[in-house]
Fold:
Amino acid sequence: MPRRYPAHLAKSNTQSHPPIDRFKSPLTAVDDEAVRLVDVLQAHPDTSDVTDASHQGDIVFTAAGDTWVLDFQFGADGEVFQSPTDTPTPADQPAADALRDVVVPALLARPAYRAATADDDTLTVHLATGRHYTLALTPAA
Structure:
C-alpha cells in the first residue's frame, strides 16, 4: 500500500520551475520585436502563414506567391539593436518585391515604427525609440 502524506507534506509529481527572468535574457528585446513583427505581418492582407522562431529563420511568411525568411542581423557592435548615431544610409538598389510591396507598407502603418528602408534583400527598421535593426530576406528552402 502506498504511503500517504498529509497534504502539506506531500511531494508533487510535477516539478515547479521558477519563471524565466525575462529582464536577464539577452534575447528578450529581439524575441519581443519578432513577436511584434509577426503580429504586423499577420494583420497584413498580402501575407499568410506567418510564424516566428522557425528552424528556417527568425520570421517566416508567405507573400507574393513565395515563402520568405527574415533573419535579424547583428550590427557592427555585435548587437541587434543599434543606436541612432549608427543609422545606415539607404542605397539606391531595388528592394525585393516582398519587402518593398508588403513588409515596408505593413510596418509604416504602425506607430511603433518610424521608418523602414528596403535595399535589395535587406530591411532596416527604425523604431519610434530612435534605435534601428536590420533583417535579411532570403527565400525559404
Q: What stands out?
A: Confidence is low (pLDDT under 50) at residues 7-15.
